[in-house]
Amino acid sequence: MSSHTKTLLSISEVRPHLFLAGYGCITPSLLKQYNITHAVECTNMKTAPIPGLERLEVPVEDNTLGKISQYFEPVVKFVEDAKHKGQNTVIFCAAGVSRSATLTIVYLMVSENMSLEEAYLHVNKVRPIISPNIGFWRQMIDFEKQRSGSATVELISGRMARPVPSVYLRKAVC
């Protein structure tokens, strides 16, 4: 099994109380293993409820037009409320690559006052397959500008088919 397949099929620990995953990992045994009692679900699939799992649904499409920013604050509050009760949360989408990664990055920005760049680099370190879509990047950049007055990530365009977040270039150098 390749390291990317292993990552895709695993729950990634971002913080002791916060995990990031794809839908395939949301099983009662894995949730119990990580002591996860709360989940932010952004799959847009009709999934069966899991007993004992409190869920917050984030019904957003994973495309450049998907409006994810309206869920930033509710997700942060949900995760923080669980944390204050001593409970663990998993944020998951279909693959644990775009929607859930976006919400995890924003959570770190808000809860730990990280810059967008710092939050992305941290989440990418624990889950190297993350890749928020370009529409989500735009919303995260706008969110950071609203919070701090400036952005630590910019979208670079040129001869590429679509813009690339500047942090991707930095990642290659790190």
TrEMBL record:
The UniProt record lists the keyword Hydrolase: yes
Domain Tyrosine-protein phosphatase: 10-149
Tyrosine specific protein phosphatases domain: residues covered: 70-128
Ribonucleoprotein keyword on record: no
Record-level GO cellular component terms: cytoplasm
Alphabetic keyword roster: Hydrolase, Protein phosphatase
CDD domains tied to this protein: DUSP14-like
A GO MF term: phosphoprotein phosphatase activity
Similarity comment: family membership: Belongs to the protein-tyrosine phosphatase family. Non-receptor class dual specificity subfamily.
Protein name as catalogued: Protein-tyrosine-phosphatase
